[in-house]
Design a protein that fits this description.
32% strand, seven-stranded antiparallel beta sheet, 566 residues, 33 strands, single chain
C-alpha cells in the first residue's frame, strides 16, 4: 500500500488538453467517437478514418505504442477560429476525420398560432405557441417547415447561445413541400452567422446528422444515422407525393425544420416528419435538396411560391401482357394507361382516357410507372413532373389507337375538389334560417372528426376526398355543416355535414353561387336538395327574417363571410 501510494505521488499530473488543441490518436477506425458540443466546441477522442499510415505508426522504435499526435485547430480545420468548425472532412496525414458541422446556423423558431375554427367559421380558436427548428441560408434568409408557422400571428427566432428573440417575417409558405422561408430585418441577428451550404442528394448508407431543438431540453440536439431509403414519399402536411429521404436518426417533435448534414458539413435535407408505430423504430423523413432548391428557385423566379406542378391524370400499370397487346403496344413499347383526366388541367385538352403515356420529356416510362433514377435505382415518373415549375412546358409521347402522338403541354398545379389547405385564408360560410353552409376541406374534416377523420368522416365525403375530380376550376363541395336550432327549422335539427346538391332545382356549383341564389330568391319557398335524397323547404320571407334573430342569439357578426360579399 505504501509503495503504491508513493508511486501515485511521484507520478506526474495528467496533462489536460487546452481548448486550443485537438488530440488525434493514430488508431485507425471507421467511426467518430465522443464528439461533444457545448457553448465552446471541443473535440475529444477523434480517431482517423482508414489512415494507411496509422498502422505503421502505431509503435515507436522500442515497440511501445506511440503517443497521440497533436494538431492545432488552425492546421486541423484550416480555419483561424476554433469555435467555427463548419467545414467538411479534416485532412491530417492523408486521413479524413468526419466532423459534425457547426451549429451557429441552426436557430430555434418560436411561433404563435391562431387557427381558424372550421366548425364555427365566424371565429378563431384560442391561440397557442410552438417551437421548432430552422437554419440560415444565403441571402439573409431562414428555412423551416411550413407546418411550423402555419396560421402564424407572430414568429420569432433565437440563435444558439443567445438570449434574444428576433421578430421574423414570413416570406413564403410552401404547403405541398412543407417548407417556409423567413427573414429578419434586425442586422444584429446576422452578426457572426454563416449560411449553410447545400450538398448533393446523398446515396444509400451515407451518414447524416440531424440538428435541431427537439423536446427533452432547451439546448441544441444532435442525432446521427444513415440514409436508408430514397423514394417518392407522402408529405403529410401537403397531402402530396414528392421525393424524400428515409433515415434512421431520431426525429422528434421540435426537430421539424432543422437541417440534416452529411459528413462534409453540407446540408442535404430538412427534417419534417417521422413514422410513429408500435412495430417500427427510428424511422424519420427528410426533405432532400432537389425539393428544397425547387422551393427556393421558385420563390426567386416568381417573387412568391407558386407550387409544384402535377400531371392531372390517374393512370394504370401495364404489366399484364394481354392488356398491353389489347391496347396495341408492341413488345418493345412500355408505358402506363390513362384512366381519368382532371378536366381543370391543361392536359385535358390534348390527352384522352386510354392513352398510353410512353415517355415524359424524352425519358421512357416503364410498365410499372417508374423511370431510371440513379445507378441501380428507379423511381416513380411523377418525380420528373415535380422537377418542373408551374407554367413550364413538357413533351409527352403517347400511344393512341396504334398511333404514336407527341404533345407539348403546359404544366399547372393541381386543383382538388376537397383541398388539403386553404392557404391561410379564413373559411367561407353562409347562414340562412340557422342553416350553416360551408365548404369541405381537409382542415374542416379534421376539425369535425379529429385526426382520425379518414375513418370517422361519412363515407360519401371520404369517397369524394379520394376519388372525385372537379368539373370546373371554381367547383366546391358545399355542405350543411350544422343547424342552429330555432323555431323555423324544427325537424331539421339533425342534419349535419350533408352535401347540398341543388337549390330550387338549380345545381349548386360553389358556396358563392348558393349564397347569391338564396339572397336574390323571390319565390315563395327556399328548397334545398341534399344528399341521401333529403330536401329542406323554408318559407322565403320567414327564413330571412328569422336569420337576424338567430345571428344575435349566437353572437355571430355576419350571415356571410367577407370573401363572399364581393
Amino acid at each position: 500500500m505504501g509503495r503504491e501510494s508513493k508511486k501515485r505521488k511521484r507520478g506526474r499530473k495528467p496533462k489536460i488538453p487546452s481548448a486550443e488543441t485537438v488530440d488525434l490518436p493514430t488508431t485507425s477506425t471507421t467511426a467518430l467517437n465522443d464528439v461533444a458540443f457545448d457553448d465552446v466546441f471541443s473535440v475529444t477522442n477523434v480517431e482517423l478514418i482508414d489512415s494507411p499510415a496509422s498502422a505503421a505508426g502505431t509503435a515507436n522504435r522500442r515497440g511501445r505504442p506511440s503517443k497521440p499526435r497533436r494538431a492545432t485547430p488552425e492546421r486541423a480545420f484550416d480555419n483561424g477560429d476554433f469555435v467555427e468548425v463548419a467545414v467538411g472532412p479534416l485532412e491530417v496525414s492523408g486521413a479524413a476525420v468526419r466532423v459534425v458541422p457547426a451549429m451557429d446556423a441552426v436557430v430555434k423558431v418560436f411561433c404563435v398560432h391562431t387557427e381558424p375554427n372550421f366548425s364555427l367559421p365566424w371565429q378563431r380558436k384560442r391561440q397557442y405557441s410552438s417551437s421548432s427548428s430552422g437554419f440560415v441560408i444565403a441571402g439573409r434568409r431562414v428555412l423551416t417547415n411550413a407546418h411550423s408557422v402555419e396560421h402564424y400571428t407572430q414568429v420569432k427566432l433565437k440563435k444558439r447561445g443567445s438570449d434574444i428573440k428576433y421578430l421574423a417575417t414570413v416570406l413564403a409558405i410552401g404547403t405541398e413541400c412543407d417548407i417556409a422561408m423567413l427573414a429578419v430585418e434586425n442586422d444584429e441577428f446576422w452578426e457572426g452567422v454563416s449560411p449553410v451550404e447545400f450538398g448533393d442528394l446523398p446515396a444509400l448508407q451515407d451518414a447524416v446528422t440531424v440538428v435541431g431543438y427537439p423536446i427533452g431540453g432547451d439546448t441544441i440536439s444532435v442525432t446521427s444515422g444513415v440514409v436508408s431509403r430514397i423514394e417518392i414519399l407522402s408529405y403529410i402536411h401537403g397531402s402530396t407525393e414528392l421525393l424524400g429521404l428515409q433515415i434512421d436518426a431520431a426525429i422528434n417533435s421540435g426537430n421539424s425544420g432543422g437541417p440534416a448534414f452529411n459528413d462534409k458539413g453540407n446540408c442535404v435535407g430538412i427534417a419534417f416528419q417521422s413514422l410513429k408505430h408500435e412495430d417500427v423504430e427510428n424511422i424519420g423523413y427528410v426533405i432532400p435538396t432537389p425539393v428544397i432548391m425547387h422551393f427556393i428557385q421558385d420563390y426567386e423566379k416568381n417573387g412568391a411560391y407558386t407550387g409544384f406542378p402535377i400531371l392531372g391524370v390517374e393512370w394504370q400499370k401495364m404489366e399484364n401482357p394481354d392488356l398491353r397487346k389489347s391496347m396495341g403496344m408492341k413488345p418493345d413499347q412500355k408505358g402506363v394507361r390513362i384512366r381519368r383526366i382532371d378536366l381543370t388541367a391543361p392536359e385535358s385538352k390534348v390527352l384522352e382516357p386510354s392513352d398510353i403515356i410512353l415517355s415524359f420529356d424524352g425519358v421512357d416510362i416503364a410498365n410499372d410507372g417508374t423511370v431510371p433514377f440513379r445507378h441501380g435505382e428507379r423511381i416513380g415518373f411523377s418525380y420528373l413532373v415535380s422537377q418542373k415549375y408551374t407554367g413550364d412546358n413538357a413533351a409527352i409521347k403517347v400511344l393512341r389507337n396504334y398511333e404514336i402522338l407527341n404533345f407539348d403541354i403546359k404544366l399547372a398545379t393541381h386543383k382538388r375538389l376537397i383541398p388539403a389547405h386553404i392557404k391561410g385564408r379564413p373559411p367561407s360560410y353562409y347562414i340562412i334560417a340557422g342553416f350553416v353552409f360551408t365548404t369541405v376541406s381537409v382542415p374542416y374534416l379534421r376539425s369535425e372528426y379529429g385526426k382520425d377523420y379518414e375513418y370517422e368522416a361519412p363515407v360519401k365525403l371520404l369517397d369524394k376526398l379520394v376519388h372525385s375530380m372537379p368539373q370546373s376550376p371554381d367547383e366546391q363541395l358545399v355542405v350543411v355543416s350544422q343547424v342552429l336550432v330555432a323555431d323555423i327549422n324544427i325537424g331539421y335539427e339533425e342534419i349535419v355535414n350533408t352535401q347540398v346538391i341543388a337549390f330550387n332545382d338549380k345545381p349548386v356549383k360553389n358556396l358563392k353561387s348558393l349564397a347569391t341564389m338564396v339572397e336574390s330568391c323571390e319565390e315563395e319557398f327556399l328548397k334545398f336538395d341534399l344528399d341521401y335524397q333529403q330536401i329542406v323547404v323554408l318559407r322565403t320571407n320567414t327564413a330571412k327574417a328569422a336569420t337576424l334573430h338567430i345571428l344575435a342569439t349566437h353572437c355571430i357578426p355576419s350571415a356571410i363571410s367577407d370573401d363572399l360579399k364581393s
